[in-house]
Structure to design on (307 residues):
């Protein structure tokens, strides 16, 4: 049975098909956090995005795609997200054991550009073939190529909806329109999350924002209206509010690997601010398995206690 919290969240998606809501419910009813409305998802697209050595050499067991299925299952994650090849290499061995999110577009670091645009590397048909519960797609607000990405996800998400698959949008501000600090500025991250919602995302993934304000016109509003951004919890709360008044699922990335205390402090701030969870990749799978399981367990403990 669905908990009251899961029913409440699903009610925010009342215009969606039964299939879309069923798959959202499946992710929210899987793993240790089942029924809480909170999510901890394992993403492993970094091999494509950053290269195999940078991604897997810190924990060589990760070169094997089966390792990540097993890590997600043993940890009790809500879902596992990865590109087509990574999932196809092992999905048959774990069919039906954990919800999958197929990452439909990807990029690499072999060419550096000021205005990134990921390539569409798989399809909705591939997601159905893999038995996925959702599709994932990255957009780069701030890139000169952003409009092309917005148009791509409009078409792809419409196709996904037609077959009952929700859309998870990785909304990462980046490009010639932004400074490096601007990529994680509170005004920019909140704006990027809102753009993802306007593009039809059922789940929004953004980076935890800093207190930096990038846009001059936005700075005037933040100061005149007294928008609280001093603490991470304040900033998370503002990002969630920017997503249709908190009526969309917003989860936060973990970024580059860092110490356990720093990871857990960040997760506590996300939980305190009303974030719906974390999508933890390198901070999990780059650790030895026992350490990764311990860290994921502690993260889930924090979210399980959150309101």
């Amino acid at each position: 049975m669905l908990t009251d919290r899961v029913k409440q969240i699903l009610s925010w998606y009342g215009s969606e098909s039964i299939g879309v809501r069923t798959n959202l419910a499946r992710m929210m009813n899987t793993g240790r956090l089942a029924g809480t409305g909170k999510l901890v998802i394992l993403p492993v697209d970094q091999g494509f995005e950053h290269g195999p050595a940078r991604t897997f050499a810190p924990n060589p067991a990760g070169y094997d795609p089966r390792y990540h299925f097993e890590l997600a299952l043993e940890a009790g994650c809500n879902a596992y997200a990865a590109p087509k090849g990574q999932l196809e290499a092992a999905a048959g061995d774990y069919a039906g054991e954990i919800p999958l999110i197929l990452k439909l577009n990807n990029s690499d670091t072999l060419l550096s550009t000021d205005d990134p645009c990921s390539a569409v590397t798989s399809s909705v048909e591939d997601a159905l073939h893999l038995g996925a519960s959702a599709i994932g797609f990255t957009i780069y607000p701030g890139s000169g190529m952003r409009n092309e990405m917005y148009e791509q996800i409009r078409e792809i998400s419409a196709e996904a909806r037609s077959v009952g698959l929700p859309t998870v949008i990785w909304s990462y501000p980046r490009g010639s329109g932004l400074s490096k600090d601007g990529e994680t500025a509170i005004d920019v991250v909140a704006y990027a999350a809102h753009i993802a919602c306007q593009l039809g995302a059922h789940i929004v993934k953004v980076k935890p924002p800093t207190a930096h304000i990038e846009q001059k016109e936005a700075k005037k509003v933040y100061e005149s209206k007294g928008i609280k951004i001093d603490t991470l919890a304040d900033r998370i709360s503002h990002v969630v509010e920017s997503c249709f008044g908190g009526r969309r699922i917003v989860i936060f990335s973990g970024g580059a690997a860092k110490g356990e205390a720093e990871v857990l402090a960040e997760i506590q701030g996300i939980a305190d601010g009303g974030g719906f969870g974390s999508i933890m990749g390198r901070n999990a799978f780059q650790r030895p398995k026992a350490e990764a399981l311990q860290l994921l367990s502690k993260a889930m403990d924090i979210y399980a206690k959150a309101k």
Observations:
- Residues 146-162 form the longest helix (17 residues).
- The longest strand covers residues 134-139.
- The CA atoms of residues 22 and 164 lie 8 Å apart.
